[in-house]
Amino acid sequence: MFEKYTDAQTFARIREYDSVTAMWQDKVAEFGGVVAIEDAGERYTYARIDEEVASLRGVLLAKGIKKGDCVGVFAPNSFAFVRAYLAVVTAGAVAVLLPPHLDETTVFGCSLKFSLKALVVADELRAKTAFAAEKNPRLTLIGCGETGDPAPAVPAAGEDGCAVLFTGGTTGKSKGALLSHRAVMAGTRNGCYGIRKVFGLRYLLVLPLTHVFGLIRNLMTSLYTGSTLFICRNNKDMFKDIAVFRPDILVLVPALAEMALGLSKQFGRNMLGDSLKTIICGAAFVPPYLIAEYKKLGVSLFPGYGLTESANLVSGNAETETKPDSVGYPYPGQELMIVDGELWLKGTNMMSGYVGDEEENRAAYSDGWFRTGDLVRMDEDGFLYIVGRIKEVIVLSTGENISPAEIENKFDSHPAVQDCLVYAKTENGKELLVLEVLPRRSELAKADAADKEAYLKEELNKINQTLPSFARVSRIIIRETDFKRSPSMKILRNGQ
Fold it and tell me: Over the stretch 232-278, which tens digit does the pLDDT of each residue have?
């Protein structure tokens, strides 16, 4: 399915690795003199990174870190993070990736929950580790910049633990998903499928490296393909960095893609840089509007679908012309089953389980299948469509079950709707379905109507009338401000 999107020679270079360690050693040998990372004015070749990683790996081993130990990585997006992550993983340990916004109490809690033997920390976050160091004497603190005698990499098998990443926690408590080396490499390899030019690209990083989308599709796929990754330290500098670095591919969530599109329309195509050709977009619903509008600018935007538990990538859509509302065709190495509308998965890309959460593990699996919680449908060509989330289903007093995401997708189809949220509320003893809409102001301005808000509500009511009577909204609210969002830019349903 994916082979047709690249030439035969390029496709043959996409090979399987059993571990990050084996992949990294291969890529250093192949791309040694190529610049892999640009950060804060510094350029790091694959060979230089390997030397830096070996030095920090020497520190870890000298501190008594052994194969299978859990070691925290606590750093913002930076070369320091990349160095720490690769050093921990190639030392045979499991990298527990702690988001930099965590407070000192949560850092301490994580040190206990994941039985951290050490915590590799950036200087700017050191103050947040003092409480953990005081209360957990078994925890060794190591600076991201520490150096030691270079140590060789510790071989890893596919089933060995590689990294722990937190799930988003937008619909429940946050959990740590353990990804094996094989799972990380399956996700990384899948990131190479579906676009014509795969190797030697210029990536810009704006997504958090502690999020699976940023780690796998942005960092790991970049390293795998001999590409160069420019690290944007502050998202407010994103367009300034684009002008300097001139990336030809971006990995974005829809909210960032929307913002970039709006600014490009306001200030010109050059806001995206004259080299940009491709955007990989996911982590939330991707409106077909974005695909169509970016095409007008000469940029191909490809939606996809994935989970932390699946090492990010489950499916990718390279057929946006004919199936713009699909999340794509499933990547190889997986088995898929749809049970009562819910997607169940097995495969080499799947997590080993939630760390320290046996109750959550029991709830997540059925007969060896991982239950995604996502409601989907599949068309006759095998392309997936997301219908909603089981946990978000609204059960009305009439007994009808409603997937708010399915309704939202209907309203999202209107060009003047940037984002929307459907929820139930009780008012004066009466049950209501409410629709809140964040309008796409650039499109709304084109409407030939004096009262733009009244026009939009009229348009939304037309869509509303096409829904089953029990699924129609009773109230429409036009928002002036954005929704509250998670760090990965998903709308927080409990924070409308």
Answer: 999 889 999 999 999 999 999 998 999 999 999 888 888 998 899 99
Residue 283 gets the label, from left (phi > 0), alpha (psi -120 to 50) or beta, of left
Q: Is 199 helix (H, G, I), strand (E, B) or coil?
A: coil
Encoded amino acid at 428, one letter: N
> What single-letter DSSP state applies at residue 213?
I
Record the pTM: 0.87
**At 91, phi and psi to the nearest 5?**
-85, 0
Q: Which are the contacts of 251, defined by CB distance < 8 A and separation ≥ 6?
A: 203, 205, 206, 207, 213, 214, 217, 218, 279, 280, 281
Contact present, 72 and 108 (Cβ < 8 Å):
no
Degrees to nearest 5, angle at CA 415 with 411 and 417: 50
pLDDT tens digits for 411-446?
998 999 999 999 988 887 788 899 999 999 889 999
Dist. CA 493–CA 496, nearest whole Å? 6
- Rounded to the nearest 10 degrees, the angle between the axes of helix 181-190 and helix 20-31 is 50
